[in-house]
Structure to design on (465 residues):
C-alpha cells in the first residue's frame, strides 16, 4: 500500500516515492546527551518509531539512522554560549565524555522500555569528526564558508534556496535568524558555525585538529555529514520535532545541498510538541518530566506510548495526568483482552479480521493517522462483532505497529496453587455457594488474578502487580 506523508517542504500530503523501493532511508535527529531527556523528546521518538514500524507494515524496508549529539550543541542557537556537554560536565563533576556516556545509556534504556526499535545505525558526533571536517572542506572549496575570530561560518546568502523548509522566500529566510543575537563578524543573521575554534584561554575537553585550527564541529554539520555517510547524498525521509524546521534542518539542507548540489531529502516529516500547562516542554524551561517521573507515579512507559498514539503527530499533545490515567486504563483493557483472547480464542480467524486490518492499514498509510488506527482496533473488540479468533488476529497484527506490548507476557497456564483456587471457585459457583465463591474471588484478586463470570463460565486475567 502507498504511504502518504505530509512533507514540510511542499506543505502537502504526498505519496512516498522512495529512491530505491522498497528500501526507505530514514534519518531522525537524536538527543543531545548532556542531561536526561524529557517526555516531550520521547513524544517525537515515539512518532518516529511508529512511522518506521508503519513503513515496514506497509511493505517498505526502512533503514533507520539516528545520531547522538555528544559535542558541539551550544546553549544558544546564535553560535554563542557554551557547549552543552562541557556545561553538563561542569555541573556534574564528570568529564564531558562520561556525561555523554551516562546520558546515552539512560536514553537507550528509556527507549527500550518505550518499545522504540533500535536504529540500524546509531552514530555519535564524536565518532564521525573526519566526515564532518571533510564536509566543511567541500563547503570551503565552493566558497560557501568564511572565517571569523571564533570559527568557520556558512554564508547563507550564497545558498539560493536558503529557508525553503520554512516556506520563506530567500531574503526572509536569511533575515530569519535576526531574532538571535547578531555577532558583529557574521555577514548575515542566519549564518551559522560549521566549525568552532577552541577558546585561547582554556583547554576544552573535547577538541580536534582541523585544517582551520583546533576546535570542534558546529551542531548542524554532524547531521548532514552522518546522514549522507550512512544513507547517501540523497535519501528518503528526515524527521524531527517542529522546533528544528527554522534552524537545524534549514541549516542541514544548506550544508548538504551546498556541498553536493543535489537534493538532500525527499520528505521532511515533523512532529508537533508535547505541551504541559500551555507551554512547550523543554529542559531549559525547568518544568519537565522524565520518563522515570511518570513511572514513579505508577505508569508504565507503554502507557505513555499509548497516550502519544492518541494524538496525531502533527497536532500538539497536551500532557495531563488525567490524560495519562485514561491512556493507562485503555491500555490495561487492551492487555486484558489480548491475554484472554490468546488463551481461549478458538478456531481460525477466517476472513473477518481482514476488513478491519485493511481499515487499520489505511489509517497508518494516511499520514500515520494513529488515532484512527487505534479506533479501528477498538471497533474490532466491540461486543457482538467479529469472532474472538478474528479479534485476536487484529490485536496481534496491529501490535506490530502500536508496539504496546500486548502479548509480551501473556499467561496461558497458571501455577498449580492458583489453578486449585480457580477450580474451587468454579465448584463453589456450581453448587451456588456464593459466599465461598466471593471469598475465593477476593483471594485470587489479592494474588493478581481477576475472575469474571460469563455465560461461557468463569474467565480469568492475570495482572502484574
Ligand atoms: P534535542 O535533544 O533538544 O535536540 O531534542 C530531541 C528531539 O526532541 C528533537 O527532535 C526535538 O524536536 C524534540 N523535542 C524537543 N522538545 C519537544 C517537545 N516538547 N515535544 C516534542 N518534541 C520535542
Ligand atoms: Zn539533526
Amino acid at each position: 500500500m502507498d504511504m502518504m506523508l505530509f512533507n514540510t517542504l511542499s506543505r502537502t500530503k504526498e505519496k512516498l516515492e522512495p529512491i530505491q523501493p522498497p528500501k526507505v532511508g530514514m534519518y531522525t535527529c537524536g538527543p543531545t546527551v548532556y542531561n536526561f531527556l524529557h517526555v516531550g523528546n520521547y513524544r517525537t521518538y515515539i512518532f518516529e518509531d511508529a512511522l518506521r514500524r508503519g513503513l515496514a507494515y506497509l511493505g517498505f524496508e526502512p533503514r533507520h539512522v539516528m545520531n547522538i549529539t555528544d559535542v558541539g550543541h551550544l546553549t544558544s542557537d546564535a553560535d554563542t554560549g557554551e557547549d552543552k556537554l562541557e556545561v553538563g560536565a561542569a555541573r556534574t563533576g564528570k568529564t564531558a565524555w562520561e556525561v555523554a556516556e551516562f546520558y546515552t545509556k539512560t536514553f537507550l534504556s528509556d527507549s527500550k522500555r518505550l518499545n522504540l526499535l533500535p536504529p540500524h545505525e546509531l552514530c555519535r558526533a564524536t565518532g564521525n569528526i573526519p566526515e564532518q571536517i571533510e564536509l566543511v572542506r567541500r563547503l570551503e572549496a565552493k566558497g560557501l564558508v568564511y572565517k571569523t575570530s571564533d570559527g568557520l561560518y556558512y554564508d547563507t546568502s550564497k545558498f539560493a534556496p536558503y529557508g525553503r523548509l520554512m516556506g520563506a522566500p530567500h531574503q526572509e529566510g536569511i533575515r530569519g535568524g535576526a531574532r538571535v543575537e547578531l555577532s558583529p563578524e557574521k555577514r548575515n543573521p542566519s549564518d551559522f558555525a560549521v566549525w568552532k575554534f577552541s577558546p585561547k584561554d582554556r583547554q576544552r575537553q573535547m577538541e580536534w585538529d582541523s585544517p582551520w585550527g583546533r576546535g570542534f564541529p558546529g551542531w548542524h554539520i554532524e547531521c548532514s555529514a552522518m546522514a549522507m555517510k550512512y544513507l547517501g547524498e540523497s535519501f528518503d525521509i528526515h524527521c524531527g520535532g517542529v522546533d528544528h524546521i527554522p534552524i537545524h534542518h534549514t541549516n542541514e539542507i544548506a550544508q548538504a545541498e551546498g556541498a553536493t548540489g543535489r537534493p538532500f531529502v525527499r520528505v521532511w516529516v515533523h512532529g508537533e510538541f508535547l505541551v504541559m500547562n500551555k507551554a512547550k516542554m523543554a529542559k531549559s524551561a525547568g518544568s519537565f518530566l522524565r520518563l522515570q517521573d511518570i513511572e514513579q507515579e505508577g505508569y508504565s512507559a507503554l502507557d505513555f506510548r499509548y497516550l502519544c498514539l492518541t494524538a496525531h503527530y502533527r497536532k500538539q499533545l497536551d500532557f495531563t495526568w488525567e490524560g495519562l490515567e485514561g491512556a493507562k486504563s485503555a491500555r490495561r483493557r487492551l492487555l486484558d483482552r489480548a491475554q484472554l483472547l490468546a488463551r481461549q480464542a478458538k478456531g481460525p480467524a477466517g476472513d473477518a479480521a481482514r476488513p478491519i486490518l485493511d481499515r487499520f492499514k489505511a489509517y497508518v498509510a494516511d499520514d500515520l493517522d494513529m488515532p484512527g488506527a487505534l479506533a479501528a482496533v477498538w471497533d474490532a473488540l466491540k461486543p457482538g462483532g467479529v469472532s474472538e479468533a478474528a479479534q485476536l488476529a487484529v490485536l496481534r497484527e496491529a501490535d506490530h505497529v502500536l508496539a504496546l506490548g500486548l502479548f509480551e507476557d501473556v499467561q496461558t497456564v497458571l501455577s498449580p496453587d492458583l489453578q486449585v483456587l480457580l477450580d474451587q471457585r468454579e465448584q463453589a459457583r456450581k453448587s451456588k455457594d456464593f459466599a465461598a465463591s466471593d471469598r475465593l474471588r477476593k483471594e485470587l484478586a489479592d494474588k493478581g488474578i481477576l475472575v469474571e463470570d460469563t455465560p461461557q463460565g468463569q474467565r480469568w486475567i492475570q495482572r502484574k502487580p
Notes: The pocket of zinc ion (ligand 2) is lined by residues 29, 223, 248 (CB under 6 Å). The chain is about 45% helix and 15% strand.
